[in-house]
Every structure is written in C-alpha cells, then in structure tokens.
Amino acid sequence: MQIPFRTTPSAQEALNTLGRTEDVRFSPENKRLAIACYKKNRISLFGFERSPQPFLSGPLEISSPHLDEPHGIDFIDENTLVVANRSGNVVIFQLPERTDGKAEVVRILEKTETTFIKNPGSVAVTRTEDNEFHILICNNYVHTVSRHCLRKEHRYELLSNELLLQSRLNIPDGIAASRDNRWLAVSNHGLYCVYIYENRAGLGPDSAPTAILRQVRYPHGLRFSSDGSTLVVADAGSPFIYLYRSPTHGWTGVHHPTAAIRVLDQETFQKGHSNPQEGGPKGLDICNQNQLLVVTNEQQPLAFFDFSAMLQPAEQRSPEQARLQAEEQVAMELYVQDQVRQELDAVYGSLSWRVTAPLRALAEAWDTFRRKRGS
Q1: Cβ neighbours, 10 Å, residue 344
Q2: Are 113 and 190 within one domain?
C-alpha cells in the first residue's frame, strides 16, 4: 500500500534534516504539506502535488523566536497556519504565496489571555459561520482540551475561551474533528486509548466519551475519513497505524481496530524505539479525497500510503491483499503481547518487587490459613 514519491533536490535535502517530527498536515486545498520539526524549532512547509504520484517542492522553512518545541499544527486556510508549541504559546502564521517569501506571525494566544492554555501539544481548527473559527488545543500535561473562538478580521480577534474536556483525560496527545464537526477524537496517551465525543451543545469538562477505541499503545496523530465513518490512529510506540470503523448509528461503544497497517519496517522502527513510547509513527493526515494517507516519524520523515485501498471492504480485496492484511493483524497482536511481557518482566525484576516479596508471601500464607480455618 505504500506509494513512492518524488521531490525536488531542495525538498529532499530538507526532508533529510527534519530531525524529530511530530504532526503533519495537508492544507485545505491539498497544495501544501506542513511538518512540525520538534527539536529544530521550525516548521517545514512543502509545495504538494498529488498526480501522477506525490511530489514535494520547496520548501519554505519557518523559523521564529515564537517556535518552542512545535508539536501540533493545523491550517485555518490555505495561507494561515496554527502552531501549538509544547514549551510555548499557540501561534498563528500568515504564509507567503511563494517559498522564497517569509511567514509572518499575525497572532499569539498568550497564556496571559487565558488560564486554559498550558503545554499546548496538539491543535485542530473547526470552522463556524460569520468568518469565525474554533481552535481546539490539547494541553498535554494538565490533561485538558480547551476551545478558543476567534474572528479572522482585526488580526484574529479572540472572542471566547473555555475549558472543553477534562474528565479522565491523561496526556491528550492528538485531536481531530470530523469534517461535519459532529465528532471529536482525542488520543488519551496515558490510558492507551482514544476517546470520541459527540460535539454537541452541553459538551463540557465533565462529559464522558461516547466511544472508546482500544488496543493502541501510545496513540498520537489521528484523523477521520471524509465521511467520518473511519478513524485512523498512529501508535507512537509501535510500527503500526490502526483503522477503526464506526457503527452505522455513529461513534458509540467500545471498539477494537478493524485493521492494522505496518508503516515502518522492523529495522527502522527499532532505530527510534529508545523507550516503549517512541519509535512509531507520530503525525498522520489524509487528503480530502480519501485517496492518500501520509505519516511522519524521525527515522522515516515521510511516507505515503494508498488510503482508498485501506478502506476497501474485505470482500472486495484480492486474496493477496487479504493475506497481507491478516499477516499484519497477527504481527500487531504479537507485538502487543511482546510489549506486555517486557513490561511485566521489568516489574518482576525491579528492586521494589524483590524487596516486597516476603510481604506478599506472608500475606498469601495468612490468606491460606484463614480459608482453611473457615472451612
């Protein structure tokens, strides 16, 4: 399913020096592709063409004193980009038409303007009527999602702030809205799952999710298909992305992935797997036409995949496609089992476990004695 892509020499040189990457985004018209370069404190912006195969040109390298560990990015429109800096503020850049131009900071959501923004890590833009839009921000280490309403006129006037989601969140590390804005998905990194909420009146800090997606280890970037019926999730701790399908009545209940797609070979994954939470894909995005999926990772800066083939119903797949999909499902399950085994081995081999062994033995003996005495 992986698709080769072409670049200009300057674009390839930029890809080779991205360093640690986080989010990646197509512009609304799919003419640009932006990548957050976390350690380099910059945004790499490429020109993008889809046909006959993905082609990258440029790039425009955006550097600014206001970029401080850029983690989340999203477009307001073709020429306006929002950046969430994990160690800084949320910044809005006006982008030049050409790659030889310069990006301009047009708005900074300062922490002094709202108490809700702290450690902003991921961001999603939703649009309303009257030229207003909402910026949804995952505040990673205070475990909240905040919503900020702005008007484009008057250099992005801030109209309101609110705490949107909080209950049960543990390091919200990615956020996406369906195209019709009915559903919001949040990567719940610390609890190994994704929460989905219905974006309706009354949604607030105490709201429970309507759906929970399981079996992903460290969820990071995530994106809805154009009709909102499929959610794709990047697992930062494994070489896989996962596809989840909603029931016909919408996103409710508890779900496991319907497909696991390997996007990194084992050698590339192991190079970045310095701890259980790293090494896998970080950012991902989908072209509006549901044709192309892109993922990014420090060891594999950019890779494109045939998303339309991933969405193909099982009965329409060739025997070879079905076989490969089954192999990937088994590989994913074995990987999860290996990770659990390693974590258990680490616990059983720890000093605290060995020191408390006599106490556990004593408690077990006492419990056995009481049962026998009772019988």
Answers
A1: 10
A2: yes
